[in-house]
Amino acid sequence: MPHIIALFNMSGGVGKSTLTMNLGYHLAVEHKKRVLLIDMDPQASLTTFTGIAPFDLEKTIYHSLLKREPLPIQKDICGCDLVPANIFLAQAELQLASELRREYKLSDLITKKASRYDFVLIDCPPSLGLLSVNCLVAADFLLIPIQTEYKSVEATINLLQTTHEIAGQVNPSLKVTGAIPTMYDERTSQSRRALQTIEEVFASLQDNPSFKGARVFPPIPRRTDFANATAEHLPLAQYAPRHPALEPLEVIAKALVKSL
After folding, report:
1. pTM of the model
2. How far apart are CA 179 and CA 157, in angstroms?
3. Cα–Cα distance between 186 and 200 in angstroms, integer?
């Protein structure tokens, strides 16, 4: 069975989808792993970033969750396979409410169809509804992207408490792999203070079994080349192969491979 990793933060705009695409590329191309990306966000940013037009799709993750259809896997997208999404996934929140085993829909799909992959990376929605609960139930490990700004850090501290409560109820085996500080600007005191706070919070959680061994990864710097690469539907490593921001991405990818 693959390592199933959810990238989750209840705050939007933290670089979660960009991170999912770039980590997937590093794992697949640089480390020769079989990687499946799953877009569970109705905004479909991951799908769009990989160059697929969401409204042109006949089948998405919505059809698998609600209509019991096979996962509509798009092959060899940025070195990975992709299960896409579009805005119709937003309807799933209401429709899943009346379903049996509604929290386990995604987990069941992955168990049936994703066994040939080494890694499954799930791009979670920025909310705590049934879609996100499905992601947390399906995952073995949790990565938490955190924007290095005060408000984002404050919200994430609350997220950690909530995540622990949910995990204890629906997926006690879920382990937090760590936090990924994003959009870091070493020139500003706000970014530096935010990074220090993130490190202090995770250090204080080490006695919690779900967070034991969790680490704060090197921060992903704020660079316009991420946006430029996304506009070209390319991972940063393809757009700018010598870019210094690739170093922290590679550190994260190596840590994930080592966990296999």
Report:
1. 0.95
2. 11
3. 18
